[in-house]
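User: I'm curious whether this sequence folds into something compact or stays loose and floppy. Could you predict its structure so I can see for myself?
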Amino acid sequence: MNNPLGGKLINRIATPRQRACLLKLALPELHISEERFIEVRNIAHGVYSPLTGFLGKKEVNSILSSWHLTNGIFWPIPIILDISFAERKKIKDARRVFLVAGNGKKIAVMDVKEIYLFKKTSFCKQIFKTTDMKHPGVKKIFSRKEYLIAGNIILLHDDRGEFAHYNLSPKKVREIFVKKNWKKIVGFHTRNVPHRGHEHVQREGLKVTDGVFVNPLVGYKKSGDFRNEVVLKAYTYLSRHILPRGKSLLGILEHNPYYAGPREALLTAMLRKNFGCTHFIIGRDHTGVGNYYAPRDYEKALAKYNAKMGIIILHFKEALFCHDCKGMTLENLCLHGENQRVRPSGTKVRAALIAKRHPPEEMMRPEIVNLLLREKSLFV
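Assistant: Here's the prediction. I'll summarize afterward.
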């Protein structure tokens, strides 16, 4: 099992005594969105180890320019909390604030270290390599507030969210790995329902590991994405009935996607390292969107940073079905012509499901299609 980033799993969850004392304080309140609440929980549970809070200007600039924290630890995307001009005035010189959820509950205390201007254009140029507002990540950044606030947090209420049964902390996942006696674990990230290509690369990962940590993303989705409930239901079936028995663990990742291509692909690898994974699968267009990132972009990022990440990246060529090979294979291993190949296509699968039709069996297992077609609503 892998060590977490920085060598120690961060725990920023208040004890009952700490919580009681902190809730008695008279502090200014900052109301935060569900997206930011997810990030507070991830900091507190060590998903974002070694981070202990939202990042300040020096750390953000270091990540933007070098993909590293100032202490040299690899970290490719800053975790930031934005506030408005009015909220900045409200806080004034307060050294501590409550972070408050939409329901009015005080969910965390933040030690205010710094407030600084959010330079959105330079942020987007570095993270997304574009400032095109058609890019969903860019659009989200420009919709955020004018300032960033930095400081350590401590979680007051450990609400595990809508899918609590599957929302396993890194500590809990590591305990399960030990119980299963898994030494080598491959992590698998997705925000879509599983087609045959996804299944095949997981099986490929199992050839060199003891188990696969199937870790679908649950969080903010852009319009047209599969609903969280649908993704989880499909992967529950895959894990229980299709993957080799006893070789998979299903747990969700609460994470708000940036659609940042190579940078985010490597961030998702780092998060799985914190869960204990020794290997991680990066797909052909991992965490990408549209035509903003090409396969070569991922190859360049891996070539530059792989040695510094401390996790083995499995960057497979495209998985496809070949009639002559009589099953699923990888593009670089198949010697047959294109007329014998069926390439799993998320676009074609989506179109078929919208039309209430079955995609070809070579693209998606009929059992999973039947499960999906029973859903009243598949998409956000």
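Summary: Residues 15 and 85 are 33 Å apart (CA to CA). The mean pLDDT is 95.
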